[in-house]
User: Fold this.
Amino acid sequence: MGRGGDADAMPDEFSLIERLFEPLAGPEGLGLKDDAAVFTPRVGYDLVLSKDAIAEGRHYLSSDPPDTVAKKLLRVNLSDLAAKGATPRGYLLSCAWSAETPLDWMQAFADGLEEDQSKFDLSLWGGDTIRVSGPTVFSLTAIGEVPSGRAVTRSGAAPGDDLWVTGTIGDAALGLLVAQGEYAGTEPEDRDYLISRYRIPQPPVAFGKQLSGFASAALDVSDGLLADLDHLCAASQVGARLDRSAIPLSPVFKKCTTSTEERWGLVYGGGDDYQILFAAPREKQERVVDLARAANVQVSCIGCLTEAQDVVVLDEAGQSIDVAPAGFSHF
Assistant:
């Protein structure tokens, strides 16, 4: 930990790195004492890299516990790797701490990273840490590997493919509202579940490693189900028929969203789900289900892809319904 003196006093930059981040470094990071990391990918594998940033007040609340902020930062990137069929190996981290961030918050943040490193089997390879006058901002680059030529992109889907999604949709968006003080009548256990889904995504990393064996296209659901489906369809030059009744919703979500308009608004455009939306040829259905069961991941077939390059949402009676454009955008 510290090297003498007041345990709560802010150390200098290099002592801070030694205290917080050196214990997280893998051999590729050279003890965080060099100018760069050195990594030799395995023969027959391609590197897959993903980068995301999260900002205080924009992607997480100032009241969120620091360990959950760290886990969210790491997991939103691991979600991207999972959607490419990649195995995580390491990450680069940049921290722009607000001037008000205390040392104990930083330490708890590092502890959260350490817990998830163990859970997902990867390590810190390097980065940067600075102080800023505005809110805290973190940026993380995740590095993974996938067998050469087997990365799953957004652009490989074909008409007739089934459309699948992992996990459940809408919990995180509702959890944010609950964390902000809405839904005051929510039962404590339901409140805890929903806020946890907002603070700590659950990307299906183990299942993602299997994607290249069956998926024709994939991406993670981060901006909202309909927005991300639009991205997949545009890249693959296909359309989609989405069966609303097949979209997986958790029991807690259904219990807490009594208004139909409210419920589907959160499902279509709430975002922050960090599940995998993927296409697969119809003959792969059994394989998809078997691999999901082996990975202990819920999968749901929610529609199919079409030649007509539009997205049509079908209600419970199979009738098309008008849905306003939905999804998160920074601009």
User: Anything to note?
Assistant: The chain has a mean pLDDT of 93. The domain at 162-320 is CATH 3.90.650.10 (Phosphoribosyl-aminoimidazole Synthetase; Chain A, domain 2). The chain has two domains: 13-147, 162-320.
